[in-house]
Amino acid sequence: MWTTMINTIRSEWTKLVTTKSFWWTTALILVFSLGYAALTGSLATGESFASLFLLAGSTVTGLYLLGFVVIMIQSIMMFTTEFRFGYQTQTFLATPKRWVVAVSKWLLYLVFAVVLTFITVILCFYLAKALASDTASSTLVVWEDTQARRIMWQYPLAAALLVTFCSGIALLLRQTAGAVALVLMWHFAIENLLSFLPRIGEYVGKYGPFTNLYAFITDYQSIDPGWSTTMGAVYFGAWAFVLFALGIVVLEKKDA
Fold first, then answer.
1. Which residues of 2-29 are buried (b: 16+ CB within 10 A; e: fewer)?
2. Mean pLDDT of all residues in the chain?
């Protein structure tokens, strides 16, 4: 079974690296993330109190706001592209155990997203430092800064959870436009809008999955006292793995 899994991962890797959209969307992650880091560093001139400090969290804002969105879209396309072009039949003929295909795709892109996110975080830190004034640059000592060290594991973990969440949605819907639209609406609007509704709004605001993920990423506690921001990641992870498990069940039961 492990041999089948490894061979499937190899075949999925070949599909991935021979897809042009994968490369240009990956380039977008770097452009968005490093572009914002460059802007942050350039503005840290040290000429005023506001520009005196270079904060680790500020340098990776582009990754948080835009880079993660591209990772979400890529993770969806890992599953839906084959259904769009009708290649899934050949894939399942080669690997009859469909769950192996799903897990292989998920694991492959999860590892890629985690590694890419970590590398991007480090590049953002050092690019911002390089462009900041000497005074501002000295306020961010990457490997000694508490916030920077947290971001180094926090952002890759968030990327892994987002990949799992979006993979589940993709397996359930099997359609790129629908899955992307749902995830982006959920990510940007649904929980925020529902939080204004009477009665249920308070609970949506506290226990929406993305609300808790935001609390984890920003390290800002926005839910009940006693529930740490790290618990927000655990909560989002529960949503992600339940959706992924349901997606595999649907994949096994529906026609290819």
1. eeebeebbebbeebbeeeeebeeebebb
2. 89
